[in-house]
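ARCHIVE CARD
CATEGORY: sequence design from structure
SOURCE FIELD: tokenized fold
FIELD CONTENT:
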């Protein structure tokens, strides 16, 4: 069975950096587009970033463009999210996910993702 385990969350101050990791198992990792989403209480889960399987093309939400970097290590079945210049509004639970759609137009939609981790909490204080 597919298992995704996020780690690396924590409490930081505005302007700091964090690197989230996602360890995957039970899946042909290098065959899938992978994504990061985040969610705050009372709000929908929102797209943060995605990276494709072939070519490693990356896509970002406008809110994180230029501050966050998504990367993958297919040899280690690992997905990463480097978060720089963190802001209080980045506070959320962050989830990694496996995209089951082959359409790039779908990669920002939660419905395109079939497997999710349990999440890791990021808190950014001002």
């Amino acid at each position: 069975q597919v298992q995704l385990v996020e780690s690396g969350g924590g409490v930081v101050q505005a302007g700091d950096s964090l690197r989230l990791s996602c360890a995957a198992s039970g899946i042909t990792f290098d065959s899938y587009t992978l994504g990061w989403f985040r969610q705050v209480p009372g709000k929908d889960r929102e797209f943060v970033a995605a990276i494709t399987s072939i070519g490693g093309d990356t896509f970002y939400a406008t809110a994180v463009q230029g501050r966050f970097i998504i990367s993958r290590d297919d040899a280690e079945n690992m997905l990463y999210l480097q978060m720089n210049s963190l802001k209080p509004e980045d506070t959320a639970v962050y989830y990694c996910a496996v995209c089951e759609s082959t359409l790039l137009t779908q990669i920002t939609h939660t419905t395109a993702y079939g497997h999710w981790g349990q999440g890791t909490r990021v808190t950014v204080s001002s």
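CARD ANNOTATION: The CA atoms of residues 7 and 18 lie 11 Å apart. The two ends are 40 Å apart (CA to CA).
SHELF: design records, drawer C
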